[in-house]
Amino acid sequence: MNIIADENMPALTAFASLGKVTPLAGRVLNREDLHEAQVLLVRSVTRVDAALLAGTPVRFVGSATIGTDHVDTAWLAQAGIGFAHAPGCNAMAVAEYVLQAVLDWACEQGRALEELSVGVVGVGNAGGRVARLLAAAGCRVLGCDPPRAAVGERMEGDLALDQLLGCDVVTLHVPLTTEGPYATHHLLDAAALARLGPAQLLVNSSRGPVIDNTALLHRLASGSGPSVVLDVWEAEPQVPPELFARVRWGSPHIAGYSVEGRTRGSLMVLQSLCAYLGESSPHPAEVAPAELLWRGDIAGPEDVLALLWARWDLRETHAALAAVLKDEDAGRRAAGFDHLRKTFPARHELAGVVVQGRVARRWQPLLAALGVRYT
Questions:
Q1: Are residues 104 and 203 in the same domain?
Q2: Which CATH number does the domain housing residue 117 bear?
């Protein structure tokens, strides 16, 4: 069996028992690359549809991602091509990204977490994990998820989007959809963005086009918009330097890029491929946490933020993207964006950390939710 895989997928050696694995650059992968492939493994940068696969021998597609907006799943089903993805694989990594962004903003603003309302738009795997972490941190967490509400899966404090936009923090965790009653393309358009003001924080770690980036730039340029943290951008891999200059923090679509999350995604796809082939998987989907001893007390939010920084610091990633965006050539900026993703340093989730110090009772529920132990 010939397997073509995005070179940025981790744990590709786990697929070697099934056939020959050839890693290629996912963003420029084309039909000619697949003329002898039976299996295609991708991430979110590869558009998978008839234009890519028609006339090829590919019979199974696996995407090591939580989202599927880059895959024409209806065409795959019609063509009889098996498909699997990895929902929830990086939910904790995304939640820790949002937690760091919120803590950093709250500490700078002198806002007590107990006084913050947090609106989570989309309470699936990632959004649900975000909601649990921020509730454990003491925030009042509200949710908005019309598709889940329509089937009776309401969370406590479920609100309409217009109401949710009044929260101190608004964080987006929806798939990108363009049709139907719950389409999310430009979910936050100019009218919605006009409801957000300077005392609020907006975080998007879902998909870039969920926010109208042009409208967001106009809102921020007016000086009356919210503080903004963006991990995703509407025209990736292009990031408008003018918009980046106005966000609080920006990163190159890496909110879910923990070692554990990415590896878990690959292994979940491996399990699905083995099931498709009628074989047993040689690897479990669970990934052992990386251990780290952190010496210090946890007495306030700044200590929790320092603990998060010990694993990974969003400020450093922002600086790296800022350096890329200084280039005057748009092509080189796009290539630099992809290079940052490809060479993103190993970032581990907090599970596996042991705190050696006093932990105030106030913070014990949050550490427990993060999988952090203390002595």
A1: yes
A2: 3.40.50.720
Confirm whether 173 is a catalytic residue. Answer: no
Choosing from 236, 264, 333, 349, which is the catalytic residue? 236
Q: What percent of the chain has pLDDT over 90?
A: 93
Band of residue 156 on the pLDDT scale cut at 50, 70, 90: low
Same domain for 181 and 38: no
Residues 64 and 103 in one domain: no
Tens digit of each residue's pLDDT (9 = 90 or more) over 278-313: 999 888 778 889 999 999 999 999 999 999 999 999
Catalytic residue (one of 248, 253, 262, 341) = 253
- Among residues 27, 129, 132, 207, the one annotated as catalytic is 207
121 and 220 belong to one structural domain = yes
Active site residue 316: no
Average of per-residue pLDDT values in the chain? 96
Any catalytic annotation for residue 253?
yes
SS (H, E, C) the chain: CEEEEECCCCCHHHHHHHCEEEEECHHHCCHHHHCCCCEEEECCCCCECHHHHCCCCCCEEEECCCCCCCECHHHHHHCCCEEECCCCCCHHHHHHHHHHHHHHHHHHHCCCHHHCEEEEECCCHHHHHHHHHHHHCCCEEEEECHHHHHCCCCCCCECCHHHHCCCCEEEECCCCCCCCCCCCCCCECHHHHCCCCCCCEEEECCCHHHECHHHHHHHHHCCCCCEEEECCCCCCCCCCHHHHCCCCEECCCCCCCCHHHHHHHHHHHHHHHHHHHCCCCCCCCCCCCCCEEEECCECCHHHHHHHHHHHCCHHHHHHHHHHHHCCCCHHHHHHHHHHHHHCCCCCCCCCCEEEECCECHHHHHHHHHHCCEEC
Same domain as 211, residue 124: yes
> For the residues 191-213, what does the mean pLDDT come to?
98
Same domain, 115 and 80: no
Count: domains in the chain: 3
Domain that holds residue 79: 2-85+259-277
